[in-house]
Design brief:
Layout: H1 22-28, H2 63-91, H3 96-119
Helix pairs in contact: 1-2, 2-3
């Protein structure tokens, strides 16, 4: 097969453009409008409601469970946004606008994780100091579900 090419790849350099919100990006699969090339069957995703954080799925849940799931959903959405932004910055490391947005989102994500630890349990080891109250000193890592238990309980 030497000398015979089946295909030649041409990949354009990604440009900075309009971004989706965290919720939209999580549902669509990218933060960049220009990279959203859905199949016709997937176009309904744009208008779908997130099943985790929707108020429709709160039947039979306590307010605490509902609040915990909504906060966890927000953390997940911002984390996805940061992951996609990191991929962009891998090839555009000098893009000031992207770097500034990354810094804002990382601070927002850290604040939400801190809030989650204070209200419920730590999601990561660096969050452990935030769940310790002044009246009781304990190692609170075991308060949340183990990774194999799955959900936000």
């Amino acid at each position: 097969m030497s000398g015979n090419y089946l295909a030649i790849v041409n990949v354009p350099v990604q440009e900075w453009g309009e971004l989706y919100s965290e919720e939209e990006a999580m549902n669509i699969g990218t933060i960049f409008h220009d990279l959203n090339k859905p199949f016709f069957a997937a176009e309904s995703v744009l208008t779908s409601i997130n099943p985790i954080a929707s108020s429709e799925g709160n039947a039979g849940k306590t307010k605490e469970q509902s609040d915990r799931e909504q906060l966890m959903t927000k953390i997940t959405q911002i984390s996805f946004f940061l992951d996609d932004l990191t991929l962009y910055l891998d090839t555009h490391e000098k893009d000031i606008q992207a770097i500034q947005l990354y810094r804002e989102k990382i601070k927002e994500c850290d604040q939400l994780k801190k809030q989650f630890a204070q209200e419920f349990y730590p999601l990561t080891r660096p969050c452990i100091p935030f769940c310790i109250s002044d009246s009781e000193i304990s190692f609170c890592w075991q308060e949340g579900p183990m990774p194999w238990e799955g959900a936000c309980v």
